Amino acid sequence: MDSLKAFLAGLGIADPFGSGFLSVLVTFFTALIFTWFFIPRLRDFAVQVGWADQPNARRLNKEPVPNAGGLGIFAGFVVSIIVAWAMRPILVELVNIQVLAIMLGASIMVLTGFIDDQFNLSPLTRLLVQLLVSVLLIVNGLKIDFNAIPFLPVLPHALAGPLSTLLTIVWIVGLTNAVNLMDGVDGVVGGVGFVVSMVLLATAAQFTDRAAAVVLLAGLAGACMGYLRYNFNPSRIFMGDAGAYLIGFTLASVSLLGTLKFSAGASLLVPLIVLALPVLDTTQVVIGRLARGIRNPLGHPDKTHIHHRVLARTASARRTAVILWCVALACGAVGMLLQGIHWPVIVATVLVVGACLAFVALRRMRAHTREKTPVKEI
């Protein structure tokens, strides 16, 4: 028993029978179970009211598919956080206002994304809302310290302050849109969101002062996994901008909560590496569009994203999703290694994440087989 406790302590689980670890499990499974059972009912309602993506040249679906999955992810996420808050097993009072700011910002982003899914908001409107929620976080103390960025000179506060604000806005708006731009193939964003959430969760769990970040990430990871059960190809429902905005914004904002700031010199290097896939995808797309003379690179969709390139080579949405999951997980492992996380934690994280993804993918494939099987009339 002592050796088991020592092993678990090495994974960041100081007391496997304590209320803190229990709260993380309850948060994760509350989000997972709620989303798992809520999505089918949400899908039926979305079909009735016409919340659906119509087929076009850029989309892979050949028939209308409900696009309200983001509401299901958000519902599971919120319910799990409420349950965790009611348990109050860990000290989060010091960051209560910041957590509430993240939840409020996430709510605004989901609402904006959902309205955009149904009525097509202008890029300027979406950008203004993203700037608004960025300011919301900043005024509540969630801000990147410019002087904490490695390899850059330490500047006077009068100059470092405005630069910190600008950098924070770029971080939040950039990651939110980067995740949204990846949402082009069944299962990609849901799976990548789950991977990144679990990697950041495992890393944050190594530090005793980051309990609030662990709880938020557990809720997001559980909700993503529950949604992925219906989104792995062939998808039964899409998350839409509402879900992609939720995932991107939450990951960006939680990283400002101190999840991975293991020293002033490292700043946001680790979450940047963990989130390398959406960041690199957006970077290469924007550069490519600018090179082709497109003045508004985010307002002219095309098929130059990484997931489109992988799909063109594999000719399989399932293989494309799995490949990008593996890339995201590899980036996460590298980020944890640079964080200084012990290798047993990294290995355990990779195995758990891989097992969870395999589980939901197999469940979706089996369900699809049953859906195709004709019902015999009696």
Report on this structure:
- The protein has 378 residues and is mainly alpha-helical.
- The chain has one domain.
- Helix content is 70%, strand content 1%.
- A two-stranded antiparallel ribbon has the order 1-2.
- The longest helix is centred in the N-terminal third of the chain and has 31 residues.
- It is globular, with a radius of gyration of 20 Å.
- Its main location: membrane.
- This is Undecaprenyl-phosphate N-acetylglucosaminyl 1-phosphate transferase.
- Pfam families: Glycos_transf_4.
- It is found in: Cell membrane.
Q: What attributes characterize this protein structure?
A:
single chain; 378 residues; mainly alpha; two-stranded antiparallel sheet; 14 helices; 70% helix
Summarize the structure.
The protein is an all-alpha fold.
Note the total helix count. 14
What is the SS-derived class? mainly alpha
Q: Please give the largest β-sheet.
A: 2 strands, antiparallel
Portion of residues in helices? 55-70%
Gyration radius from CA atoms, angstroms: 20 Å
Number of domains: 1
Order of helices and strands: HHEEHHHHHHHHHHHH
Count of strand segments: 2
Strand content: under 5%
- Spatial order of strands in the largest sheet: 1-2
Distance between the termini: 57 Å
What best-fitting shape do the alpha-carbon axes yield?
A: globular
Report low-confidence residues grouped into runs of 5 or more: 259-267
Overall pLDDT: 85
List the helices and strands and how they pair.
Layout: H1 2-10, H2 19-49, E1 52-53, E2 65-66, H3 69-87, H4 96-119, H5 123-139, H6 157-181, H7 188-204, H8 211-228, H9 240-259, H10 269-274, H11 276-291, H12 306-314, H13 317-339, H14 343-372
Antiparallel strand pairs: 1-2
